[in-house]
Amino acid sequence: MRLTILGGGGFRVPLVYGALLGDRAEGRVSHVTLYDEDPARLTAMTRVLRDQAATAHGPAGDGPAGDGPAVDAPAVTATGDLDEALRGADFVFSAIRVGGLEGRASDERIALAEGVLGQETVGAGGIAYGLRTVPVARGIARRIARTAPGAWVINFTNPAGLVTEAMAEELGERVIGICDSPVGLGRRIARLLGARPQDAWIDYVGLNHLGWVRGLRIGGRDELPRLLADTEALESFEEGRLFGAEWLRSLGAIPNEYLHYYYFNRDTVRAYQEAKQTRGAFLRDQQRGFYAEAGRAGAPAGAALAAWDRTRAEREATYMAENREVAGVGERDGSDLESGGYEKVALALMRAIARDERATLILNVRNGSTLSVLDAEAVIEVPCLVDANGAHPVGVEQLPLHAVGLVTAVKAVEREILAAAASGSRADAVKAFALHPLVDSVGVARRLLDGYAAEHPGLAYLR
Known about the structure:
Helices cover 49% and strands 15% of the residues. By secondary structure, the protein is of the alpha/beta class. The strands form three sheets. Strands 3-2-1-4-5-6 form a six-stranded parallel β-sheet, sandwiched between helices. The longest helix has 25 residues, at 123-147.
């Protein structure tokens, strides 16, 4: 099979390639094409993947880092030509970042100056990112439909639910969005309850970065109430420490970590304003150093991969640092530093479709009739049964009213972003900002749009 990665110079590409190196089943990916508009990033990333392939080993060890014979690594090519990258692809991973990390940093800075959250996918920052990204994602979807109509598209691009919904206008059910947050949350809960994650059914429902685990069934029995009753166990993992046992028991559920921005918004905004630099600025500066080091000519074998490993470890350790400061929980535990597993979800999804190996995965797909409060085309994040015909959402219990309010409000915002990106209407864009639960004034919404439009050429289409 042939896999194309759009945004192939992106930092997380080695996670995907590492997962491919560990996949030794029949019919695995034999060729990976990296597409990126930045030649320097492509050069650095191909060197990291080359180092990965050189050090990968077979089944005598534990996965791709075992001590057996070297594996037959998928071939890698890199290109800046989109049509060339798409031709012949069986699967396309879309992982683009319109505006780069510089754009993310300014998204955060402009919002915080107005006293509102500027996180990458939540609040004003997520809206600005969506307004830049949706027109590009729609264009890519049209190119895929024309150049690789038989390909399945797996969307990593944030805001993942919004972008998947935009691409589905062209690609229908052949585009599926993924996120590692629900996977990581379900894994942590299952392990706390003494179960293997693969043996547990996770009752999870919501939108991307706006969902709740409402139950976790092991052997047909819901074990989540047992966890909610145990304060010590609740406060022993990432989400339990972020939200606190009392609030989790009040909800009767475990929220996705991103809901901390909603439930503790004022505290988080203050912490972000007082931080030395925003998350986007930190990643921008960090990755400048990484790409310069990994792309340096004449570096010894293994140097690019070593630089990537160091950078990734620091990136994971500092994830949501301001939120943890608000909660007073200190640094992340070692168990929380494990990769969320989005590359494993992507590989499992690809395998299920390509080989008709049925799997159950939490994915971003069209609602159909799953949630009655949303229309059929709305992309939601729920457990899905996956087979050769794609991903099929599983019927779930309806949301409680407090969750209905957040989900419908944020979906309304996403619809205004989609409308603004199609019409170029400034009024639609202002409405998207003003309707968001974390933006408290129409005046603030107008100033936010003015600030973003002044800095981002990608918003020049709004008038």
